[in-house]
């Protein structure tokens, strides 16, 4: 894919369809939202300018994609040697929690997550700074709308998969959901975690960003998928206590998921 096409994809506008500006979430009224949107569209405009100036526009080459490094302690272990990037997605959805209401000192317990995955492979490989902003920007927009249009608001990035839990310790990724892109399925297990950087984007209600993770595929994975990384997280954490919380609740989050495969 050429740079110009890539940027149109990130911009959400094409010459074929009149762009319908998606709804911001009701919660996204904080002044930071305006700053986030301004930064994002300013960066996009810069990339468009730059791509006009270069004679050979960069093309989508996943071998150029570099997994963002965690700066926190402990850092995440790197991908195992010999693995290559197969896919990069923005995951946009909810982290689910429960609270034991019969216990006045109970803390929220994570019960899993549900997210829709949107294909950002080419953006991550070509414009990592733009990709970094996408989770934060996506968190400000209504997921119902992105799911209905199958495009990550406010972009034209299309759905590439689904993420959910099959039991409390098995995050599952299905990258076989679209007809043209069957990249495999992977039940996973957590191998390591690293706190999100202190300046990571907060959630719609100011929630801390969930940790960065390294997941290993369990038996039964297809498409040669071996490892999945959750990085550049935005929002998603539960409050520290169950004070005033219902028995079960959801916290909106967005993140990048990086899928690594063993080349055949
Ligand atoms: C999200 O979008 C859907 C469909 O357009 C709409 O019904 C819903 O009210 C919106 N939710 C929020 C929180 O804006
Ligand atoms: C989506 O990602 C894959 C690889 O991860 C890439 O080959 C493909 O071209 C992408 N599709 C679109 C429409 O961007
Ligand atoms: C988590 O949230 C999703 C999305 O709303 C919901 O469909 C699912 O039932 C919830 N799961 C749990 C275990 O609460
Ligand atoms: C109440 O919650 C606290 C904090 O999670 C826990 O240590 C304690 O064992 C719980 N008490 C009961 C009776 O479940
Ligand atoms: C969850 O599912 C995985 C994979 O099927 C299995 O290995 C594990 O034992 C299960 N754990 C629980 C707590 O059920």
Automatic annotation (TrEMBL):
Keywords: Signal
Leader peptide range in chain numbering: 1-17
Pfam families assigned: DUF3455 (PF11937)
Official protein name in the record: Malate dehydrogenase
Native organism: Lasiosphaeris hirsuta
């Amino acid at each position: 894919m050429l740079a110009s096409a890539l940027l149109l994809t990130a911009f959400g506008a094409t010459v074929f369809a009149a762009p319908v500006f998606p709804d911001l979430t009701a919660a996204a009224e904080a002044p930071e939202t305006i700053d986030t949107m301004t930064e994002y569209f300013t960066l996009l405009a810069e990339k468009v300018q730059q791509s006009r100036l270069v004679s050979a526009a960069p093309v989508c080459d996943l071998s150029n994609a570099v997994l963002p490094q965690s700066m926190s302690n402990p850092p995440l272990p790197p991908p195992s040697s010999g693995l290559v990037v197969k896919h990069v997605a923005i995951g946009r959805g909810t982290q689910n929690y429960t609270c034991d209401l019969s216990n006045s000192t109970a803390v929220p317990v994570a019960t899993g997550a549900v997210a829709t995955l949107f294909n950002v492979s080419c953006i991550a490989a070509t414009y990592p700074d733009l990709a970094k902003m996408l989770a934060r920007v996506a968190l400000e927009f209504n997921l119902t709308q992105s799911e209905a249009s199958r495009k990550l608001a406010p972009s034209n990035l299309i759905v590439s998969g689904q993420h959910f839990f099959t039991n409390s310790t098995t995050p599952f990724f299905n990258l076989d959901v679209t007809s043209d892109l069957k990249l495999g399925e992977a039940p996973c297990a957590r191998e390591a975690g690293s706190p999100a950087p202190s300046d990571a984007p907060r959630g719609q209600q100011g929630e801390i960003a969930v940790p960065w993770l390294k997941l290993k595929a369990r038996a039964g994975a297809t498409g040669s998928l071996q490892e999945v990384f959750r990085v550049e997280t935005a929002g998603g954490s539960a409050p520290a206590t169950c004070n005033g919380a219902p028995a079960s609740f959801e916290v909106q989050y967005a993140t990048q998921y990086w899928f690594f495969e063993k080349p055949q």
